[in-house]
Amino acid sequence: MKRKWSRRVFLKLALGMLAGACSARSGELPSTTETSAEELPPLFALAAPSPSPIPTALPAPDGAAVAFLSAWSAGDYATMYDLLCQADRSAIPFETFRGRYLRAQTEATATAVQNELRAVLARGNSASASFRTIWQTSLFGPLSFENTLPLIWEGGRWVVDWSSALILPALGEDLTLVLLDRTASRGNIYERNGLGLAVQGKMVEIGVVPGRLPNDPGPV
Hints:
This protein is an alpha+beta fold.
């Protein structure tokens, strides 16, 4: 004999089976818990970025240029020599360095030297300083020259890459300044008949000083 189920009973049974299946499935799901960053394995540990090195800027070369030019104006050749790069100090002794400046200034009859710094341009480990030199001379008056002072960064400081052209721009390593004080000879000048108007020769001058002549004895 077949049993007939009412609709209400059927719905209760269906809901009961559905609830049991959901609870069984929920039991199979793994429980989720929060994990701190300290519990993460090393593979997932966050690495702090290493700081990149910051390049150190070089000091301005103006101080070395001013010191060299000021020492020259004051005649302090020892300070000038100390500001040369190592290669220049190895190539030229101090007395030779000092002698080149004194010889050039003596030949030019210079009584004073004045230096004016114009501008300084630095590019990495090298720099150049433009300056103007004024020589006060007893024979030619003031003489001015435009020049450029090269500098390099060496041994933790700015030093001068020296050459003889820093004394005078046109003065090379094999050139020296010499003053030729010989008087230029002048040609003779004649008039159209051949009489000399201005000729080279000796001139004798005779003069009488009144009061120093002996008394005139008169005619004999």
